[in-house]
Design a protein that fits this description.
10 helices, about 80% helix
């Protein structure tokens, strides 16, 4: 068997890759903490902030991929206490972002735009504590892995698919939200309403995450 044949033997089957790509698309396109963070930043600060938030979100997902490849995700899945801590930490962070967003919307003077580094870091934290993403990498992704083959190459291949699909989806959200912001968010009233909507959405997601039992996460 040549080197290319050995490499192909380590990779997931094409059918597995296609099914995983579909599952990834359904996860990333549905509204969640990551999507809402990207959209909120794009609406409030434009395309540049949207892309900074997007790269933060994707970086958080890369961390989850690395955890899956090294077995940390499996250890986390085996610990009810760890999952509970993750769930409440994610809920608390979403509620914090919601409160901050609501306060910003109530300020009459336009708030100073957050730096790209701050936006990026918040995106990383948002996705690391995102219960939906945690479930995907802890419980769902392993179903696409062949335990009789080395796990690392499979996670790397599926991770590349995940990141590619997620970036395509998030870029669409950034471009759409920033275009909407340029057209409809010029007035202070519109900005305040948009900020309140984002704040309420964050708060609702945080409360929903906190109320969800560990077995359901």
């Amino acid at each position: 068997m040549g080197a290319q044949d050995r490499l192909e033997a380590l990779m997931p089957a094409p059918t597995t890759v296609l099914l995983f790509a579909l599952a990834t698309f359904l996860l990333t396109v549905s509204p969640g903490p990551g999507v809402l963070y990207v959209v909120a930043r794009s609406l409030s600060q434009g395309r540049r902030a949207g892309f900074a938030s997007m790269f933060g979100i994707e970086s958080g997902e890369v961390v989850w991929l690395a955890a899956t490849a090294t077995g940390l995700a499996a250890l986390l899945a085996a610990s009810v206490s760890a999952l509970t801590i993750l769930r409440f930490a994610g809920a608390a962070y979403l509620i914090y972002l919601g409160v901050q967003r609501w306060r910003a919307a109530e300020v009459f003077a336009p708030p100073a735009p957050a730096r790209s580094g701050t936006i990026f870091a918040q995106g990383v934290i948002t996705q690391l504590l995102n219960p939906k993403v945690a479930v995907f990498f802890i419980a769902f992704l392993p179903q696409f892995l062949n335990p009789s083959q080395p796990i690392g190459p499979q996670v790397a291949a599926l991770g590349a698919v995940y990141v590619a699909v997620a970036i395509a989806v998030d870029v669409t959200y950034v471009l759409t939200a920033s275009a909407v912001a340029r057209r409809f968010m010029n007035s202070r009233v519109a900005q305040r309403r948009g900020g309140r909507f984002a704040a309420v959405t964050y708060l609702a997601l945080g409360l929903a995450a906190a109320a969800t039992g560990t077995k359901k996460i």
